[in-house]
Amino acid sequence: MNIPFLDFLDFLDKWRKRQSPDGGDGLVAVFENDQEAVSELFSECELLRSQAGAMGLELDDTAGSLHALDQLLPRWRDDPELLPWLGNDAGLYLGSVIVRTVPAAVWHVWPGGHPVVRLASGREIQVVEAGLDWAVNGAPELFQVYAEAAEA
Fold first, then answer.
1. Closest to 41 measured CA to CA, from 82, 87, 90, 96
2. pTM higher than 0.70 for the full model?
3. In what order do the strands lie in the sheet with 106-109?
4. What local confidence, expressed as pLDDT, does residue 132 receive?
5. Residue 152 pLDDT
6. Rounded CA gap, 110 and 117, in Å?
7. Which of 11, 24, 118, 144 could lock 108 by a disulfide, CB 3.0 to 4.6 Å apart?
8. Cβ neighbours of 2 (radius 10 Å)
9. CA 115 – CA 86 distance, rounded (Å)
10. What's the pLDDT at 1?
Protein backbone atom coordinates (compact mmCIF):
# COMPACT_ATOMS: atom_id res chain seq x y z
CA MET A 1 0.00 0.00 0.00
CA ASN A 2 1.28 3.47 -0.81
CA ILE A 3 0.95 6.23 1.79
CA PRO A 4 1.26 9.72 0.34
CA PHE A 5 3.61 12.12 2.07
CA LEU A 6 0.75 14.31 3.30
CA ASP A 7 -0.84 11.30 5.01
CA PHE A 8 2.49 10.67 6.71
CA LEU A 9 2.51 14.27 7.96
CA ASP A 10 -1.03 13.81 9.24
CA PHE A 11 0.12 10.68 11.07
CA LEU A 12 2.94 12.65 12.71
CA ASP A 13 0.56 15.46 13.69
CA LYS A 14 -1.73 12.96 15.40
CA TRP A 15 1.26 11.52 17.21
CA ARG A 16 2.37 14.95 18.43
CA LYS A 17 -1.12 15.70 19.74
CA ARG A 18 -1.20 12.41 21.63
CA GLN A 19 2.22 12.87 23.18
CA SER A 20 1.95 13.79 26.82
CA PRO A 21 3.17 17.26 27.85
CA ASP A 22 5.61 15.81 30.37
CA GLY A 23 7.56 14.06 27.59
CA GLY A 24 6.11 10.64 28.38
CA ASP A 25 5.71 7.77 26.00
CA GLY A 26 3.51 9.33 23.31
CA LEU A 27 5.27 7.58 20.44
CA VAL A 28 4.92 4.27 22.24
CA ALA A 29 1.18 4.93 22.58
CA VAL A 30 0.82 5.53 18.84
CA PHE A 31 2.54 2.22 18.12
CA GLU A 32 0.38 0.34 20.58
CA ASN A 33 -2.93 2.03 19.73
CA ASP A 34 -2.77 2.27 15.94
CA GLN A 35 -0.90 -0.79 14.71
CA GLU A 36 -2.65 -0.71 11.34
CA ALA A 37 -1.43 2.83 10.57
CA VAL A 38 2.08 1.99 11.74
CA SER A 39 2.14 -1.18 9.63
CA GLU A 40 0.90 0.74 6.61
CA LEU A 41 3.54 3.42 7.09
CA PHE A 42 6.43 0.99 7.56
CA SER A 43 5.41 -1.24 4.67
CA GLU A 44 5.79 1.52 2.10
CA CYS A 45 9.57 0.94 1.64
CA GLU A 46 9.61 2.91 -1.59
CA LEU A 47 13.36 2.65 -2.27
CA LEU A 48 13.43 -1.12 -1.77
CA ARG A 49 10.34 -1.58 -3.91
CA SER A 50 11.79 0.53 -6.72
CA GLN A 51 15.14 -1.31 -6.63
CA ALA A 52 13.40 -4.69 -6.63
CA GLY A 53 11.04 -3.56 -9.40
CA ALA A 54 14.00 -2.47 -11.53
CA MET A 55 15.25 -6.07 -11.25
CA GLY A 56 11.86 -7.50 -12.21
CA LEU A 57 10.64 -8.38 -8.71
CA GLU A 58 7.33 -7.11 -7.38
CA LEU A 59 7.18 -7.16 -3.59
CA ASP A 60 3.83 -8.56 -2.44
CA ASP A 61 4.36 -8.52 1.34
CA THR A 62 4.75 -12.30 1.60
CA ALA A 63 7.46 -14.58 2.92
CA GLY A 64 8.09 -15.67 -0.68
CA SER A 65 9.06 -12.11 -1.60
CA LEU A 66 11.67 -12.14 1.19
CA HIS A 67 13.16 -15.29 -0.31
CA ALA A 68 13.12 -13.67 -3.76
CA LEU A 69 14.91 -10.57 -2.40
CA ASP A 70 17.61 -12.82 -0.96
CA GLN A 71 18.22 -14.21 -4.46
CA LEU A 72 18.73 -10.84 -6.16
CA LEU A 73 22.16 -9.80 -7.37
CA PRO A 74 23.09 -7.05 -4.87
CA ARG A 75 23.88 -4.24 -7.30
CA TRP A 76 23.09 -1.67 -4.59
CA ARG A 77 26.38 -2.50 -2.85
CA ASP A 78 28.12 -0.47 -5.56
CA ASP A 79 26.56 2.69 -4.11
CA PRO A 80 27.68 3.27 -0.48
CA GLU A 81 25.28 6.22 -0.13
CA LEU A 82 22.34 3.98 -1.02
CA LEU A 83 23.20 1.14 1.38
CA PRO A 84 21.89 2.56 4.67
CA TRP A 85 18.64 3.73 3.10
CA LEU A 86 18.05 0.46 1.31
CA GLY A 87 18.99 -1.52 4.42
CA ASN A 88 16.53 0.48 6.50
CA ASP A 89 13.79 -0.17 3.94
CA ALA A 90 14.69 -3.88 3.84
CA GLY A 91 14.39 -4.08 7.62
CA LEU A 92 11.05 -2.29 7.67
CA TYR A 93 9.80 -4.53 4.84
CA LEU A 94 10.95 -7.62 6.75
CA GLY A 95 9.13 -6.38 9.83
CA SER A 96 6.01 -5.64 7.81
CA VAL A 97 5.93 -9.16 6.41
CA ILE A 98 6.41 -10.62 9.90
CA VAL A 99 3.66 -8.45 11.41
CA ARG A 100 1.24 -9.34 8.60
CA THR A 101 1.88 -13.08 8.55
CA VAL A 102 3.08 -14.23 11.98
CA PRO A 103 0.21 -14.48 14.49
CA ALA A 104 0.32 -11.90 17.31
CA ALA A 105 3.47 -10.18 15.98
CA VAL A 106 3.27 -6.40 16.42
CA TRP A 107 5.39 -3.33 15.93
CA HIS A 108 6.91 -1.95 19.11
CA VAL A 109 9.08 1.09 19.67
CA TRP A 110 11.83 1.38 22.22
CA PRO A 111 11.97 4.60 24.26
CA GLY A 112 14.65 6.03 21.94
CA GLY A 113 12.30 5.66 18.96
CA HIS A 114 13.82 2.46 17.55
CA PRO A 115 11.17 0.21 15.90
CA VAL A 116 11.31 -3.54 16.51
CA VAL A 117 8.88 -6.40 15.97
CA ARG A 118 7.60 -8.05 19.13
CA LEU A 119 6.48 -11.67 18.86
CA ALA A 120 3.79 -13.33 20.98
CA SER A 121 6.55 -14.90 23.09
CA GLY A 122 7.83 -11.43 24.01
CA ARG A 123 10.96 -11.83 21.91
CA GLU A 124 11.85 -8.71 19.99
CA ILE A 125 13.43 -8.79 16.55
CA GLN A 126 15.60 -5.88 15.53
CA VAL A 127 14.45 -5.89 11.93
CA VAL A 128 16.17 -2.65 10.89
CA GLU A 129 19.56 -4.01 11.96
CA ALA A 130 18.83 -7.26 10.12
CA GLY A 131 17.93 -5.26 7.00
CA LEU A 132 21.12 -3.19 7.21
CA ASP A 133 23.25 -6.32 7.66
CA TRP A 134 21.49 -7.91 4.70
CA ALA A 135 22.04 -4.88 2.45
CA VAL A 136 25.72 -4.57 3.35
CA ASN A 137 26.79 -8.20 3.83
CA GLY A 138 24.02 -10.37 2.43
CA ALA A 139 23.56 -12.04 5.81
CA PRO A 140 21.44 -12.81 7.61
CA GLU A 141 19.10 -13.60 4.78
CA LEU A 142 15.75 -11.89 5.18
CA PHE A 143 13.86 -15.15 4.76
CA GLN A 144 15.99 -16.77 7.48
CA VAL A 145 15.05 -14.03 9.96
CA TYR A 146 11.41 -14.44 8.95
CA ALA A 147 11.54 -18.24 9.35
CA GLU A 148 12.99 -17.92 12.86
CA ALA A 149 10.23 -15.47 13.79
CA ALA A 150 7.54 -17.73 12.36
CA GLU A 151 8.84 -20.68 14.42
CA ALA A 152 8.84 -18.82 17.72
1. 96
2. yes
3. 106-109, 115-118, 124-125
4. 95
5. 74
6. 10
7. 118
8. 9
9. 16
10. 44
Do 55 and 10 meet the contact criterion of CB atoms below 8 Å apart?
no
Amino acid letter, residue 126: Q
Quote the CA–CA distance of 11 and 38 in Å, as a whole number: 9
3-state secondary structure the chain: CCCCHHHHHHHHHHHHHHCCCCCCCHHHHHHHHCHHHHHHHHCCCHHHHHHHHHCCCCCCCCHHHHHHHHHCCCHHHHCCCCHHHHHHHHHHHHHHHHHHHCCCCEEEECCCCCEEEECCCCCEECHHHHHHHHHHHCCCCHHHHHHHHHHC
What is d(CA 80, CA 124) in angstroms, rounded to the nearest whole number? 29
The pLDDT tens digits of the residues spanning 36-63 come to 777 788 888 999 999 999 999 999 999 9
**54: exposed, middle or buried (C-beta count within 10 Å: 0-12, 13-18, 19+)?**
exposed
* Range 100-113 average pLDDT: 89
Q: Could you write out the three-class secondary structure of 21-40?
A: CCCCCHHHHHHHHCHHHHHH
Supply the Cα-derived Rg of the chain in whole angstroms: 15
Higher local confidence (pLDDT), 29 or 35: 35
